[in-house]
User: Which sequence fits this backbone?
């Protein structure tokens, strides 16, 4: 399977040349969203979407003709019977400094790298999954394959349900919490776009020196493959970052006359608005305003304003059509009318529901996971809390406790699914807690655990600093789509964010003194060398008398 996927990657330029001769009905759209945050920062989200169709469904002869969709991305998925796939890299996000429970793109993972997808059932599904992760890992210059035996998780299909139902499929999940974003991940991402970062919104993104100076970044793709019931496929890509918005002097300009204090596209990206990508059906710039804090936020030139439900809040959104020739080479300025200095808020309005996870260590080998789920709404919420542990973390399920205001509340645990690792076969341990979260409450879940001792050979060849655990997931069960018409729900439940992630967790493990084996090797080698030298000298050296003449002795004495 790996050789097959590599063959497709090598032949991708040939397929691209063929695609030019065979026109398809692919459509491409792009958008750039700016969202000022309450702590003086700004979230910037690039999004790209391509709708494509598969020629295999229209012809009895197997073909792979693509125009706006890169063959290097789709061909490994077609060859390995993948129906859906999502890849995400996230680093640097801190939910405590924002009024949102996560990044603007709802598919972003909690931290590190993550690849998940649905494969059609077959006898060699696991081999096909490994082929896909290896092929796309090479494409993105990132290690997406399993590092240890048993890293693959196959019971998270309920947490990541199919967006397009396909029968007889299995869900696969691989998490890499130690992964970090770098320029080597950005360059392949841009190469997948039809514009290649040369025109359109992607030209603003193709500046690693600027976007990697931001405080946090997230990159990912989501692919829905065509099928007999859904002839059109879709692949989406995104890049998101958070950058400081307030200058060092803490000043804001309160009018549009003095450009020194304005915020603008050119000041953020060091470029003015680029020419649109010729094949783009839509290219939109969006500015999200949070009322009432940003009621005095102004823009020039003006855009089209409207209200939208975004992440559980009704927000004011300004849009500009970047395909308008009048905006090419121009700039858009933003300023806060009547506000000359930014004051950091004493308190940041928290999101409707949030989750955090820490470890309370009693001993070097034992500890307790303490999960805090805060419901800031006047509504009772239903959710599933999920964990992924390596095999050497052993939880004590009989000692799980739930608290609200220091009072035990076992009645809030509706269901528990526990899938432990089963030695001698190495695998991950997964847990799913179905919970009821009362209104205006702080639910604390405590899970005692023991850290098993790893063998000397099981420690990774890396600097010993502990091992990072994957972000845990809180899946909300009572959300309503944001774009639903006629919905009576007008609160924080009206959101597309179905999953809230915790940060990664660095867990210290019992570690042997790695210097002792080398000390033993050095001492043993020294003793053996001395012993061998003495024995070799005793067995090979010849003993005899040497006669010295008297004349030579007299001459020596003189």
Assistant:
């Amino acid at each position: 399977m790996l050789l097959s996927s590599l063959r497709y990657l090598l032949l991708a330029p040939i397929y691209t040349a063929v695609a030019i001769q065979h026109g398809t009905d692919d459509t491409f759209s792009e958008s750039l969203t700016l969202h000022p945050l309450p702590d003086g920062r700004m979230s910037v989200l690039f999004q790209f979407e391509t709708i494509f169709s598969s020629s295999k469904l229209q012809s009895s002869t197997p073909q792979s003709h693509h125009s706006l969709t890169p063959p290097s991305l789709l061909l490994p998925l077609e060859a390995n019977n993948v129906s859906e796939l999502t890849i995400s890299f996230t680093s640097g996000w801190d939910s405590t400094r924002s009024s949102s429970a996560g990044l603007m793109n709802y598919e972003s993972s909690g931290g590190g790298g993550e690849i998940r997808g649905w494969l059609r059932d077959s006898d060699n599904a696991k081999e096909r999954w490994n082929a896909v992760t290896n092929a796309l890992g090479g494409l993105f210059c990132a290690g997406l394959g399993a590092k240890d035996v048993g890293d693959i998780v196959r019971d998270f299909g309920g947490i990541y349900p199919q967006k397009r139902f396909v029968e007889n499929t299995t869900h696969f999940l691989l998490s890499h919490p130690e992964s970090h974003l770098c320029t080597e991940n950005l360059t392949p991402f841009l190469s997948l776009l039809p514009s290649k970062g040369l025109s359109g919104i992607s030209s603003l993104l193709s500046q690693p020196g600027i976007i990697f100076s931001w405080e946090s970044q997230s990159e990912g793709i989501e692919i829905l493959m065509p099928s007999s019931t859904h002839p059109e496929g879709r692949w989406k890509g995104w890049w998101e970052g958070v950058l400081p918005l307030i200058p060092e002097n803490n000043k804001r300009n309160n009018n549009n006359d003095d450009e020194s204090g304005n915020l603008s596209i050119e000041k953020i990206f060091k470029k003015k608005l680029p020419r649109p990508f010729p094949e783009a059906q839509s290219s939109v710039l969006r500015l999200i305003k949070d009322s009432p804090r940003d009621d005095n936020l102004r823009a020039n030139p003006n855009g089209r304003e409207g209200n939208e439900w975004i992440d559980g809040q009704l927000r004011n959104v300004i849009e500009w059509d970047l395909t308008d020739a009048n905006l090419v080479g121009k700039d858009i300025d933003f300023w806060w009318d009547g506000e000359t200095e930014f004051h950091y808020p004493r308190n940041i309005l928290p999101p409707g529901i949030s989750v955090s996870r820490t470890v309370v260590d009693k001993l070097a080998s034992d500890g307790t996971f303490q999960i805090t789920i805060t419901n800031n709404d006047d509504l009772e919420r239903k959710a599933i809390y999920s964990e992924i542990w390596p095999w050497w973390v052993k939880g004590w399920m009989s000692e799980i406790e739930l608290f609200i205001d220091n009072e035990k509340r076992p009645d809030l645990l509706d269901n528990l699914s526990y899938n432990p690792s089963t030695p001698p076969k190495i695998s991950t341990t997964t847990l799913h807690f179905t919970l009821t979260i009362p209104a205006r409450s702080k639910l604390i879940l405590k899970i005692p655990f023991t850290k098993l001792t790893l063998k000397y050979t099981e420690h990774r060849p890396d600097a010993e600093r502990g091992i990072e655990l994957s972000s845990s997931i809180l899946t909300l069960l009572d959300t309503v789509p944001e774009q639903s018409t006629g919905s009576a729900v007008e609160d924080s439940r009206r959101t597309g964010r179905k999953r809230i992630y915790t940060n990664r967790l660095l867990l210290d493990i019992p570690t042997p003194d790695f210097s002792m084996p080398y000390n033993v090797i050095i001492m043993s080698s020294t003793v053996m060398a001395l012993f061998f030298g003495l024995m070799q000298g005793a067995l090979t050296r010849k003993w005899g008398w040497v006669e010295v003449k008297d004349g030579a002795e007299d001459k020596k004495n003189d």
